[in-house]
């Protein structure tokens, strides 16, 4: 059975101007034959992602969303650069083809990359696809193995030594995301002040490990081989990638890691099959990752809480656009529920922490 990730017709108001895009791409990318067709990938809440077909070739275009955007978010050039640098040393990156800041083409900067054709697992498994308990464990371990591979890339060898500032990384993240939350808070959103104060107070010592970190690593940003759904062949959505403490990336993974026995509230945060029978628990994820990386830490409560908070900020920034009528995408309306759940989960973790 074919479980390849499917596209849909483009959402109203998010169309691309093919009269300008078509000739531009043909002038830059050699060998494009036949009529150009564009559809949209349905997943994702941040940058918009389109499938471009031209003859037998499939490419993916990424552009920022419509409406108000965070000052440093949705940087197409940054995402293109990290793919260009990582591709030779980390083959799970898509191959980038072209980037432009010329807004006369589709109204914003954008980039195009080759499509990695495969299976993407979302909240619900594709019809007909299932995993036994042993297979679910293997799937979750394989996902973490690729994260370990990414965090083991030699930053300097990849040409990304100046891609971020690892010194003071945790402090800047806590301060930066706290500011973003306050700037995007709407009247119906929780204030998160207790969580932000705890994160500011409980920051761990500076890490001696510096890694390329994806910053949004989860099942529905991973492409699996079409004939082997345990094998990761691609990682998508590198818009927030940087270099810094890899445990901050693990904290982000754990924010998305919903367990089988979690409360119905937390099940709202499910973005992939982490709640299958046999899948690793969050404690199992921590143990497996630290062992593979040869690391130890007493501060996982901090990294997990920050991961939950950061996810809440992302959800709130998305909801802000819907609240102020800057997008017609009805999926955004429910983001406020996620924000409320994430504050509750953050406070629960803080309440049981020994830090």
- CATH hierarchy: architecture of the largest domain: Alpha-Beta Complex
SSE run: HEEEHEEHHHEEEEHHHHH
Q: Measure the end-to-end span.
A: 49 Å
Largest sheet: 5 strands, antiparallel
CATH superfamily of the largest domain: Aminoglycoside phosphotransferase (APH), C-terminal lobe
Which structural class best describes the helix and strand composition? alpha+beta
What is the beta-strand fraction?
5-15%
Calculate the mean pLDDT score and round it: 93
What does this protein look like?
The protein has 355 residues and is α+β, with helices and mostly antiparallel strands. It has two domains: 18-114, Phosphorylase Kinase, domain 1 (2-Layer Sandwich), CATH 3.30.200; 133-352, Alpha-Beta Complex (Aminoglycoside 3'-phosphotransferase, Chain: A, domain 2). Helices cover 38% and strands 13% of the residues. The protein has helices at 18-28, 76-86, 133-151, 169-184, 193-201, 246-256, 264-267, 282-293, 300-323, 335-352, and strands at 36-40, 48-54, 57-63, 96-100, 110-114, 211-213, 222-225, 228-235, 242-244. The strands form three sheets. The chain has a five-stranded antiparallel β-sheet with strand order 1-2-3-5-4, sandwiched between helices. It has a two-stranded antiparallel sheet with strand order 6-9. Strands 7-8 form a two-stranded antiparallel ribbon. The radius of gyration is 20 Å and the shape is globular.
């Amino acid at each position: 059975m074919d479980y390849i990730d499917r596209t849909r017709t483009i959402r109203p108001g998010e169309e691309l101007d093919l009269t300008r895009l078509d000739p531009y791409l043909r002038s830059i990318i050699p060998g494009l034959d036949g009529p150009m067709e564009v559809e949209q990938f349905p997943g994702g809440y941040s940058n918009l992602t389109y499938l471009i077909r031209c003859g037998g070739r499939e490419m993916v275009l990424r552009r920022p969303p419509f409406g108000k955007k965070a000052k440093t978010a949705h940087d197409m050039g940054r995402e293109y650069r990290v793919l260009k640098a990582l591709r030779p040393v980390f083959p799970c990156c898509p191959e980038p083809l072209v980037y432009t800041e010329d807004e006369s083409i589709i109204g914003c900067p954008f980039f195009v990359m080759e499509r990695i054709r495969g299976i993407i697992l979302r909240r619900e498994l594709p019809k007909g696809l299932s995993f036994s308990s042993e297979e679910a464990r293997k799937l979750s371990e394989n996902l973490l193995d690729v994260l370990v591979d990414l965090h083991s890339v030699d930053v300097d060898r990849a040409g990304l030594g100046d891609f971020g500032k690892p010194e003071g990384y945790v402090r800047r993240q806590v301060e930066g995301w706290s500011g973003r939350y306050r700037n995007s808070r709407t009247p119906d959103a929780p204030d998160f002040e207790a969580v932000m104060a705890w994160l500011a107070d409980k920051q761990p010592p500076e890490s001696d490990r510096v890694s390329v970190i994806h910053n949004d690593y989860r099942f529905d940003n991973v492409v699996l081989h079409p004939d082997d759904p345990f094998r990761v062949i691609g990682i998508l959505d590198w818009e927030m990638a940087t270099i810094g403490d890899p445990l901050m990336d693990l904290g982000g993974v754990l924010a998305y890691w919903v367990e089988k026995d979690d409360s119905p509230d937390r099940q709202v945060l499910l973005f992939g099959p982490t709640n299958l029978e046999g899948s690793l628990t969050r404690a199992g994820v921590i143990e497996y990752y630290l062992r593979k990386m040869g690391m130890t830490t007493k501060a996982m409560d901090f990294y997990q809480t920050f991961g939950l908070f950061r996810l809440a900020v992302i959800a709130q920034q998305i909801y802000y656009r819907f609240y102020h009528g800057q997008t017609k995408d009805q999926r955004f309306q429910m983001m406020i529920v996620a924000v409320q759940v994430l504050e509750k989960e953050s406070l629960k973790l803080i309440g049981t922490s020994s830090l």
